[in-house]
Amino acid sequence: MKQQLFDVQELPLAELQKIGLAQNGLISLKEDDLQALLAGRRTGMLRLENLTGDGMHIPMIDAKLSFKRNAQGNMDMLLHPIYKEATYPEYLTDVEAEKLQNGTAVNIEKVVTDKEGHRQDILIEYDPETREFIITDSEKILVPDMVNNEFLSLEQRERYKKGKEVQLADGTVFQYSGTDKKGMVSNKLALVASLIVDGGLSYILYKGLNALLNKKRDEKEAASFSLGYEQAVSDMNENKMFTEQSKAQKADQQHYRRTGR
Length: 261
What we know:
This protein has three domains: 8-81, no CATH class; 94-139, no CATH class; 146-247, no CATH class. Helix content is 26%, strand content 32%. The chain has helices at residues 13-18, 31-38, 94-102, 154-161, 219-222, 227-259, and strands spanning 22-23, 26-27, 46-53, 56-69, 75-81, 108-113, 119-127, 132-137, 146-147, 150-151, 166-167, 173-176, 184-186, 190-197, 200-207. The longest helix is centred in the C-terminal third of the chain and has 33 residues, at 227-259.
């Protein structure tokens, strides 16, 4: 289940090096922060150094980081610092914004009209770390076909896309989150999501998941996994082994054709 929007080679090393996140051609980020960037999400809070621009120099700042592709196809780096106060979008009411800020609402769905006049379903969340409202196009949320070897129903898939909790038969509960760098939160520390691609299954193992928003969890219970999860991990490993063997076999065949032996 490929989540990457970008390849690591596309990330601008020069820009990352300027803020202390790359050195000698290597990116110095935690793996989950790097994966968040490649998936088009925000990193966790980072300590950035030596920022310059518009005649200003900032020795050090705490901020989250993300990238987006501009109209020319190049990568733009976006900084998400800690704002003094939150400014909410015009299509949120005062009451809705307050609910997001005080945590009584995890997210709010809206249908808005974009610049071209098209209707767009969006999901609005609040990031208390940066005091920023985060807006996600619901159609761009990647919805898994299976989780822990259990196929999701149309209702479950729709709930996930709308940012609502989804519960499996094995007791696992998970939810999309645009504020979390993994893009998902759960009552479990780990789960396996699968996507049907070209008749086969693509897998991703989510590890170290944060708790459901505004809910406490028993960490001992969160670390106990179902038979469905264990089977999904086994299937994922078998799929990975088969893929690696197929690649090796293909490479051998190409070598044979080139050398004739």
